Amino acid sequence: MPRLQRDIKGAALGQLSPLLGKSILLVLSSLRGKPQCGIPAHGFVRVRCASCGHDRMVAFSCKRRGWCPSCCGRRMADSAAWLVDRVFPWVPVRQWVLSVPFGLRYRMAFDAGLMADVSATFARVVLAELRRRARTLNVAGQSQGGAVTFVQRFGSALNLNVHFHMIALDGVYAAEGERAPVFLELEPPEDADVVRVATLTAGRILRLIERRGWHEEADRLWQQDPGLAQLYSAAVQGRIEEGPRRGQRLGRLGGDRIDGDSVDALAASPRCASVSGFSVHANTAIPAGDRQRLERLCRYAARPPLAADRLSRLTNGKLRYELKRPWSDGTTAVVFEPDDLLAKLAALVPAPRVHLTRFYVRFYGVLVPAAAWRPQISPTACAATPFIRDATVVPGRSVPGSPCRSTEPTPKAEL
Predict the structure, then answer these.
(1) 303 and 118 in contact (C-beta within 8 Å)?
(2) How far apart are CA 161 and CA 155, in angstroms?
(3) Are 55 and 82 within one domain?
(4) DSSP calls for 297-360
(5) Quick one: 88 and 53 in the same domain?
(6) Three-state DSSP class for 392?
(7) Which of 121, 117, 105, 118 is nearest to 221 (CA)?
(8) Are residues 48 and 115 in the same domain?
């Protein structure tokens, strides 16, 4: 991987510099230091576990924004462990995925405010749907749901695809007066419920865009930086930006279709819906006691865009990137020229002056840090949280016999 990065960097920066103009500084900043990141030969520290005595070497990191597999992998593991240990209570959760039309993906790629508004709209619709279903069960008192949303900028073929993975509690907390909140587990959503969520989300987002006049506004990114606008546009469409094949689709192996990130193909699957280019998928659920699967789901939602073990060099000098899963048409990999790959990775670097944690991991409902009920439902307080399953209140832990995780921070050596 380091050799590939050096070759890509040396071969392509000269071609991309005239295109990007001022934005080349952003690209150079994201690339600087990455060939040595995560390699012990370029520096490391030795850490030791105080409990078991095991020690290991931890290589220095570049600490750059964007797509570095080593740094993003470390953040992925750290974030997932923290969410499971400190945030998510011992209750069932469900993943809701929102994919948006191509034009909105392009706009959200550089407009952090719009991205935050779309994420908040989606979360409000899903949490309102959970409360609506809870009211049909005659839940007394106030009820609240909770969710954590991860914003992903990438698709499986390293294309620019801003979409949202929301891990929501599969039910609501309810409380009467001064009593402690009790969790009510809801039945899995029906297909009609997912269609309702997709319809409301699409309608509210479209009205938000119309109300703020964004549909009539000129392309602000094109006015400020035409090079970056071209880069984003090509990355969203999965097309080549530079060279003799400019504007054509990327090369692929095993199939004849490039857009494998569309969720429309899943419309016939359970708990999937597509409305006006907005697609919602909600068929992934994790029971209350399966904390290992919950951590794997958090890692999946927080994963880095580039998997180094899936990138290889072909005999003709081109680069092959394996897809994690074959597309519906049989495509198993995409092929890049070195400059094509650099352009795609440059588009995946988050916009400057955007806080990565604040805008790319967002909390809603009872999981907001300042929420009044969060201290009572956090994993460290799970022994005091009642749990309702099949209309029966189970006092104590949400999963009988399941111990609370340690409140101490997870050592870096264990990540």
Answers:
(1) no
(2) 5
(3) no
(4) HHHHHT--S--GGGEEE-TTS-EEEE-SS--TT---EEEE-HHHHHHHHHHHSPPTT--HHHHH
(5) no
(6) strand
(7) 105
(8) no
Question: Which helix (DSSP H) or strand (DSSP E) does residue 57 occupy?
Answer: strand 55-59
Report the distance separating Cα 71 and Cα 93, nearest Å: 27
Residues 248 and 233 in one domain: yes
The predicted-structure confidence for 54-112, as pLDDT tens digits, reads as follows: 888 888 777 666 677 777 888 888 899 999 998 999 999 999 999 999 889 988 888 88
Three-state DSSP string of 126-172: HHHHHHHHHHCCCCCCEEECEEEEEEEEECCCCCEEEEEEEEEECEE
> CA-CA-CA-CA torsion for 243, 249, 251, 257, nearest 10 degrees?
180
Residue 411 is assigned to a structural domain of this protein = no
For the sheet containing 311-313, what is the strand order? Answer: 251-253, 333-336, 319-322, 311-313
Is 24 part of any domain?
A: no
- Domain presence at residue 405: no
3-class secondary structure, 182? strand
Radius of gyration of the chain (CA): 23
Q: Do 368 and 374 contact (CB within 8 A), yes or no?
A: yes
Tens digit of pLDDT for each residue in 343-356?
A: 788 888 876 666 66
Residues 40 and 99 in one domain: no
What tokens appear for 324 in the block?
């994690």
List of residues 6+ apart from 216 with CB closer than 8 A: none
Q: Range of 268's domain?
A: 67-400
Name the domain count of the chain: 2
- Looking at the structure, do residues 51 and 107 belong to the same domain, yes or no? no
